[in-house]
Amino acid sequence: MRRSICSPTHVFRFVSLWVIGFAVLASSTTQADEQVQRERSFDVQAIYKEKCLRCHGDHGQGTSEGYSKPLDTSQSVEALTKVIAETMPEEDPESCVGEEAKALAHFILETFEGSKGELNSPGITRLTVAQYRNSIADLLGQFTPQPSNENQTDRRRRSRRDGNGVPGLRGEYYQSEGMNKAQRLAHYRSDTRIDFDFGRDAPVPSLTADQFAIIWQGSLRADHTGEYAFRLTTQNGARLYLNFDPRPNTGSLRDDRSSGDNEAFIDDWVGSGKVRTKSASMFLLGGRDYPIRLEFFKYLEDAAQIKLEWKPPHGTWSVLDFNHVTTESSPRTYACDVPFPADDRSLGFERGSHVSPQWQSAVMAGAVQTAAEVISRLPLLSGTAESGDRDEKILRFVQRFAEVAFRRTIEPEEAELLRSITLANPDDLESGVRKSVVLILMSPHFLYPDLTSLGDEPSQLVVASRLSFAMWDSIPDAELIEAAKAGKLNQREGIEDQARRMLQDPRAKAKIRRFFGLWLEIEERDLSKDRALFPEFDEQVVADLRRSLELFIDSVVWSRRSDYRELLLADHLMLNERLSELYFERQNDSDGKLSGEEIKQRAREREFASSFQPVDFDAAERSGILTHPYLLSVLAYHNNTSPIHRGVFLTRNIVGRALSPPPNAIAFKDDEFPDDLTMREKVTLLTQDSACMSCHSVINPLGFTLESYDAVGRWRVSENEKPIDTESNYVTQSGEVLKLGSARDVAEFAVKSPSAHRAFITHLYEHMLQQSAHEAGEEQLEQLTQSFAADDFNIQKLCARLAVLATQKASPRSNHLTENSQ
């Protein structure tokens, strides 16, 4: 089928047609006279909304808060009518019977039939916000030259470092002479943190104290997408460069722009002898390395000092140290910071299912912003820094830009269109490039990951695209494209080889980190606590706890075994000194703490080099993520525990049992209970009604197992001078009665439960493929569950399997829609 680039106007027309088509299909009903009469008698859509929506979703797809499976549309009207009359809605089954139940059955079957939980719509899926930003970054990244890591300092120390650099920044210490601030290189080393107070002394013996300069260089690792703040404190001269295109340095630091034509991110180059602080913020994408360069000089001031701090997303102000910087050089990574409306998460995972005017406006703004970025760096990106053939080089760049954006070879007519736009005015090529870039980025072939027609065999380039979006939420890199062009993706083995390679990329690790944030429900949570009850639990502790949890998860997932069971059963926490004082002092050691040497020794044993060290606990007191203080704090009130929140989380996300929304939600009001009751006693009273116990007979026993941990996740043995009671009888889905008395009991049950394994697989499937796991079918999910167990529950292998599965999925795109996109 012929493809073509769509103009912005055509794109909006295309989107509008899709939205209109969706609305028509969503409201369509049978034309049979009998059904028309029923719908005149009953407002069947209102009935569905009132009695079915909260459990089954607006498309019958199921919900994360109700029944996770789609409605079964394979049964007859009579059979479904009987089910509705006898069981629906769950809290009042007799309220929908007779002709009303029959009308509702007709509506469900005819509206959702054959859609597997999606309305009968074209089914096109746009880029999610994360996919858009990552794709834009990698699109420009494929034209950005890689910096050399073989500068003077690197060559001297090459034998002492590996290919990924060493923690810290490369420090080059120069002797100054007059206005020449970098006259002579006197010393070089790796500095693990930039927080120096040299006073009146020289920083190293080979320099004089009156005037000297230091240049620190390397890369900054951003773990999360968001706004990063930086703060520079000095009484001398300093300037910070961040996420720039490296240029040859002048060396002397004489001028005000020593890094070529890059502007300083923070410029405080004129020393005053008084301590000053300057700050600035920058939007960065998670899972990326960014070039960083800090220049500092002293010239006849009484003293010298320099400190570089940062505040990342989910963090607090702290000195930028070796945990987040490396001596390796990196290229600039463009981060589009245009605000986007949030993606749809009605099914419990992010997906690009809606095209709104706000999204259209954001896409246009992103295209315009990206075009400006391209123009500002055009000589570098197009290779026209050298003289000769400028017009042809720029045209080749634009056409190649389209091929990378579309994840395929462009058609001759597309190439000709780009030529006519780009070269329309030979005296103003930049204007032509700008128009072409906006046109490309507004095309459906960029904005929609997969426009393969229904029933068509995907090309190997489409396979490459599906694989990269599953692994990285981004477009394929050059190596994956080359593998596709060489015919290496027509067999499962070749796809698996690429999946294993891609899994080791920081972009894959960032996507998996994002998964755990969503699976553990820790994103955008308020962790504030009553300061009178928990004075130590400040924002620094919260930031440390989140990092502790992420480091623990990383240590499990990216280990050789990558064992899911270790996530639930590990008896250690990653703690720094601050957290150790808060969480380890309650243990049974003689002084309640580990000595510094003991912490270091355990770190050496685990080969985990970080300021956070693994600290072992009694196995009865800690059990993996289930008892991590950050998660326990998230699932608690500001002044007390919450067995209900903790129990719901364990039920749905860990054990893998569906829960219906409560028929009548009852707010927990602590002041309505006697003061001498424990939280368990309060919850027992609150949920004792038979209607509540239909779910709370499952929720409460699981939640009570975590009552040994207070609202900030510390171990406790009593509450209100009463011993903590964590024991309950838990009835499994198969009817077996288990006696649970601790979080470890829950963890040991989960690691042996196929339902728990299925829950983890389902969440990961939906995150990586961004579609309901039920579309895979029961047989496929069962195979994944069995393979997971056969692989000793290796999470990395599961990720690779899911990525390969993404390349084999049947495209839901319709022929009609693909034709409209031409």
How would the blueprint of this fold be written?
Elements: H1 8-27, H2 33-41, H3 44-51, H4 53-56, H5 77-87, H6 98-112, H7 129-141, H8 152-157, E1 169-177, E2 180-191, E3 195-199, E4 211-222, E5 226-234, E6 237-242, E7 266-268, E8 276-284, E9 288-299, E10 304-311, E11 318-319, E12 325-326, H9 357-376, H10 378-382, H11 390-406, H12 412-422, H13 429-441, H14 444-447, H15 460-472, H16 478-485, H17 492-503, H18 506-519, H19 539-557, H20 564-569, E13 572-575, H21 577-583, H22 596-606, E14 613-616, H23 629-634, H24 643-655, H25 679-686, H26 690-704, E15 718-719, E16 722-723, E17 728-731, E18 737-740, H27 743-751, H28 754-769, H29 778-790, H30 795-808, H31 815-820
Antiparallel strand pairs: 1-2, 1-4, 3-10, 4-9, 4-12, 5-8, 5-10, 6-7, 6-9, 10-11, 13-14, 15-16, 17-18
